[in-house]
From TrEMBL:
Gene: lysN_13
Cofactors: pyridoxal 5'-phosphate
GO terms classed as biological process: alpha-amino acid metabolic process
Protein name: 2-aminoadipate transaminase
InterPro entries: Aminotransferase_I/II_large, Class-I_PLP-dep_aminotransf, PyrdxlP-dep_Trfase, PyrdxlP-dep_Trfase_major, PyrdxlP-dep_Trfase_small
Length: 405
């Protein structure tokens, strides 16, 4: 073994210097303690992963098609999966052919590939406030100028999008049950935003990992279904099947998909053949279709527990979103409170959340936080929300140090 050297390491790319581990990330490691209820993560409920069905499908794939499953495969993805995705999108009013579908290693890889292919240093990228942290991180590597646009309960404001679009390269939006806001774009708002995008010289990237996790009724379609021809749609099997399979997709105009295929070839050649064949097999066997009503019931019960606990316990001046699907509730505290400053105390009280400023672009929003109900059972959610509410109450009345300056 070489002796340790005092010599500094050679230089790394400027691009890599943008990558950071946030202080919040470090703090949330504490939330892994057994005595802390984490409402911070947004992971799917692991107890609902269909492990037995996957084991049987895995046996079948390895018995019947071992060579294809274990060999290199096409960069675009395997045909049955691309066909399933195209049919799934067509049923939601999006007119993509299987050739316009690229299978990716999770939709997170889709975000990275879109950043690579669409974003130059200084390109303007329009995102709603707040936005998915993983998308902000993926795009940030390509040095864009982010423009955050305000939203209300119906979604991003048309006047804010109209002001941000001239000269923009891309708009990144989540139409349904967004992460972190737990918000969907209302149909009339979606029509207005789609009209603006149709007339603009910018790409639309529509990210929809949670659309199938609705509670009472299927949500309205997003913007691409309202005829935005320069729209790329991102989807994933992570929330409806299992994230460990790392399987997602991008569907988009052929010229864009062709370029993304070249970028993906350089990145990882293709998404794991075995995982693709496994998922094609469980889709064929109806496993996802049968699992969805169960997932919707579990998450709806937990959402109800969280909303009723917020209602029963939060002091006046605290507001929150009421999601009709997905995994997240977005909480806005009175303006004098700072959710990041409060987090160590919350962890000491046995409850963790993600401070909202983590998801932000532009002006700070220190008095916001994200709660997830996805991995915790209803009684535990009720207890954790009650403790958090007591801490907020206490801070509002007695702890000036944890308020914003
Ligand atoms: C909005 C959004 N997009 C994309 C992803 C990435 O999902 P995956 O790479 O597992 O498909 C997530 C994961 O939480 C998400 O919340």
């Amino acid at each position: 073994m070489n002796p340790p050297s005092a010599r500094p390491l050679p230089a790394i790319a400027q691009r890599a210097q943008r990558l950071r581990t946030s202080a919040i990330h470090d703090l949330l490691q504490l939330a892994n303690r057994a005595d802390v209820v984490s409402l911070a993560g947004g992971l799917p409920d692991a107890a609902s992963f269909p492990a037995d069905a996957l084991r049987e499908a895995s046996d079948r794939v390895l018995r019947e098609q071992p060579h294809a499953a274990l060999q290199y495969g096409p960069t675009e993805g395997i045909a049955p999966l691309r066909e399933w995705v195209a049919a799934h999108l067509r049923a939601q009013g999006m007119d993509f052919t299987p050739a316009q579908v690229l299978i990716t290693s999770g939709s997170q890889q889709g975000l990275d590939l879109l950043g690579k292919v669409l974003v130059d240093p200084g390109s303007r990228v329009v995102v709603e406030r707040p936005s998915y942290l993983g998308a902000l991180q993926a795009f940030a590597l390509y040095a864009p100028e982010f423009v955050g646009i305000e939203a209300d309960a119906s979604g991003p404001l048309p006047e804010a999008l109209a002001a941000a679009l001239p000269g923009a390269r891309m708009a990144y939006l989540q139409p349904r049950f967004s992460n972190p806001a737990g918000r969907s774009i209302a149909p009339a708002r979606a029509d207005a935003l789609a009209a603006l995008l149709r007339a603009a010289d910018a790409w639309l990237v529509e990210d929809d990992p949670y659309g199938e996790l609705w509670f009472d009724a299927p949500p309205a379609p997003g913007l691409i279904a309202r005829d935005v021809p320069q729209g790329a749609h991102l989807g994933t099997f992570s929330k409806v099947l299992a994230p460990g399979l790392r399987l997602g997709w991008i569907a988009g105009p052929q010229g864009l998909i062709d370029k993304l295929v070249q970028a993906k070839q350089a990145a990882d050649l293709h998404t794991a053949s075995f995982n693709q064949m496994l998922v094609a097999e469980v889709l064929r066997a109806g496993v996802v279709e049968r699992g969805l009503p169960v997932l919707r019931r579990i998450y709806r019960e937990r959402r109800d527990a969280m909303l009723s606990a917020l209602d029963a316990n939060m002091p006046e001046g605290v507001a929150w979103t009421k999601p009709d699907g997905g995994l997240f509730v977005w909480v806005t505290l009175p303006p004098q409170l700072d959710a990041a400053a409060l987090l160590p105390q919350a962890i000491a009280c046995g409850v963790a959340y993600v401070p909202g400023d983590t998801f932000n672009v532009g002006a700070p929003a220190r008095n916001t936080l994200r709660l997830s109900y996805s991995t915790v059972d209803a009684p535990t959610i009720r207890g954790a929300v009650a403790r958090l509410a007591a801490l907020i109450h206490e801070t509002l009345h007695h702890e000036p140090a944890l308020r914003s300056a």
